[in-house]
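To assess whether ligand presence alters the predicted conformation, the chain was also submitted together with magnesium ion. Input:
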Amino acid sequence: MRYILLALGVIISIHYILSFTHEEYGRATSISTIAGQFTGPKSNPPYKTPVPDEYYKVDEPIALQDRKSNATFVMLVRNSDLSGIMSSMKQIEDRFNKKFQYPYVFLNDEPFTESFKEHIQALTNTTVEFGVIPHDQWHQPSWIDEERATKSRDEMVRDGVIYGGSVPYRNMCRFNSGFFYRHELLQKYRYYWRVEPDVKLFCDVDYDPFLVMQDQNKVYGFTISLFEYQSTIQTLWTTVKSFINSNPGFVSPDNAMGFLSDDGGESYNLCHFWSNFEIADLDFWRSEAYSKFFEFLDEQGGFYYERWGDAPVHSIGAALFAKKEQIHFFNDIGYRHEPFQHCPQGELNTKGKCWCDPSQNFDYEWYSCLNKYDRMFS
Ligand SMILES: Nc1nc2c(ncn2[C@@H]2O[C@H](COP(=O)(O)OP(=O)(O)OP(=O)(O)O)[C@@H](O)[C@H]2O)c(=O)[nH]1
Ligand SMILES: *[C@@H]1O[C@H](CO)[C@@H](O)[C@H](O)[C@H]1NC(C)=O
Ligand SMILES: *[C@@H]1O[C@H](CO)[C@@H](O)[C@H](O)[C@H]1NC(C)=O
Ligand SMILES: [Mg+2]
């Protein structure tokens, strides 16, 4: 414990020196003059200060394109996910995108069928691109010891761990952790909004969340946070600590370790942002800190020997390499991915014309981690 605290102290001071020469992350570089309005008093989480009215385009059928972000939707799906992803996409269009007109990138480990593409393109007037994932970025690397991987999958099946026996699920987690942002179709974008099949969007999103990310220098946005299954990440935290110890300069000053750990970094409390919803900065994943971090994790083989999820991996990366203020809770976006939902409360519910019942809200349920996010600001 002492040792970790000491290490973090050193990390923070070293980072201060290094940050002026390399990393942009962890430093407020582009907060504009209006940023003060958002940030609010230091004693409040930033999301308690609502998005200013100037950002809202309530009565415009198509938002005036005076300012647009460099952003896209990203959907990783199979051909068989057509109906589920059409359902999600229709809601994205109706609640937000028919007004803001951002493009879509669909990714798959095999080619999309013509019929899939036609059905998807019919849902929008914006650009939709369909990409195939390079073989090596999806499949289990040849240096993974298959005997050890099989043994671990069998154990997880026996223990009833969800997706414990699945190799494709592991491929998906590894791809989302370290490769999607390197896909050629995403190179031209800075921000993305990840959308999965069969999710629900409860409220009108009458402002552009990408512009809010950009103007406030945010790198990661979430709607739901919760605990991970310990059995899927047995050695993840030991690996993270080992990375931090050998690369102290990457850890941001004023990071969000307080969200991840209840004892100053000694142990992981299993909290993570639920990554089926993400609005985030692709350049953050492309940064030296996160790239090296992913490489280090990948070398341990934990995506296959265990079942490391992209949610804890992204969350730990964001929490350590960004400032806590750069992680945004989209309190006003009503969202459901089975079996949990975030339903905006009070005025936000009315403002967004939300159709969820505010009493059905995961925010402060016992399995939620939002209180650990909040406590970092008090
Ligand atoms: N192309 C492709 N996409 C996949 C594959 N497996 C999962 N995905 C996508 O990866 C994302 C996460 O997979 P899900 O099956 O939703 O995993 P989950 O959200 O942890 O679990 P659920 O509770 O089943 O939703 C979704 O967008 C899926 O469509 C696969 O084998 N191929
Ligand atoms: C696309 O644009 C055309 C012409 O402006 C319009 O008639 C049509 O309804 C639009 N479709 C969608 C899905 O927005
Ligand atoms: C959008 O962002 C990407 C990644 O940072 C960058 O390469 C690209 O030049 C940007 N495009 C525009 C139009 O600013
Ligand atoms: Mg899902």
